[in-house]
Amino acid sequence: MNKVIVAGGPSLVRTALTRVIDASGTLRAVGTAARGEELADLLDAGVDADVVLLDRSIRTARQGGFTALVTETCAAARTVVFGAPSAQEVDAQVRAGATGVLGADVSAAQLVAALETVCRGGLVVALGTAPAVNRAQARVTPELTRDLSVREREILTMLSSGQDSASIARDLGLSPLTVKTHITNMLSKLGIRRRGHLIAFAYESGLIVPGMTPTSFLPPLLRAPS
C-alpha cells in the first residue's frame, strides 16, 4: 500500500483528502502538514511516504515561494500539486520537479487514480475544465517537435497522459528497454536533463492540450516501427 502525506490547504480540505485516500484501498495517508515548514519537519523526521499531495495554497516562508517548496519536496518524495489554478502553472511546477499537477475540481476517483499512477512512476496532469494552451504563446518552437520521430512523439504523448514505461511498452508491443532508449534519445535531442521535464515540453509545444480526456491524448499516427 502506497503512503501519502497531505500538505497545505484548509484543515477541512486536508481531512477530506485524507479520507478519500484512506478509503481507496490502495493508498494510506501517513501524515498531514498545514504549512511548508511543517511538511519539511515531517520529511526531515524520516516519515516514510511514496508521494506528497501538495496543496497549491500552502503557506511557506521560503525564499522562492511555492515553486521552491515543490523543488525541495521532490528531493524527498514524488510530489503531486493539487489545486493548480490554470494551465499556465503546469510548466512551472513540472520544471520544479512535480510528477503530477491536478486542478481543484478533480473528482475523488481522479485524485486516487492520479496518485496511483505517480506511485507507479507515471506523470499526470489533470486540470478538469482548464482551457487549452494557446499555441501561439508557447515558448517551444514547432521545429523542436519535428526533431522527434513518429515513434518518439507517440511515446511522449503516452508518457504525458500518465503511462509509465512498462505500460507504454506493453501497449506498443515493444520491450521496456526500447521504450527507455527512445526516452533517452528524446532527452538528448531536446536538451532536457530530467525525464519529468518532457511533459512540460509536450505542453509547451502544443502536443498535449490540458483538458483532453486520456484517450484523446494519442495522436492519429500510424504505429511506427521501433
Spans where pLDDT lies below 50 across 5 or more residues: 129-142, 210-226
Biggest sheet statistics: 6 strands, parallel
**Order of helical and strand elements:** EHEHEHEHEHEHHHHH
Overall structural class, as computed from helix and strand content, comes to: alpha/beta
- The N- to C-terminal Cα distance equals 35 Å
Query: How many DSSP-defined strands?
Result: 6
Helix content: 40-55%
Oligomer: single chain
Rg is 17 Å
With helices defined by DSSP (H or I, 4 residues minimum), what is the helix count? 10
Strands across the major sheet, in which order?
2-1-3-4-5-6
- Overall, the morphology is globular
Mean pLDDT: 79
The proportion of strand residues reads 5-15%
What is the element layout, followed by pairings?
Layout: E1 2-7, H1 11-22, E2 27-33, H2 36-44, E3 51-55, H3 65-74, E4 78-82, H4 88-95, E5 100-102, H5 108-119, E6 124-126, H6 142-146, H7 150-160, H8 165-172, H9 176-190, H10 198-204
Helix pairs in contact: 4-10, 7-9, 8-9
In short:
With 226 residues, the protein is an alpha/beta fold. The protein is 43% helix and 13% strand.
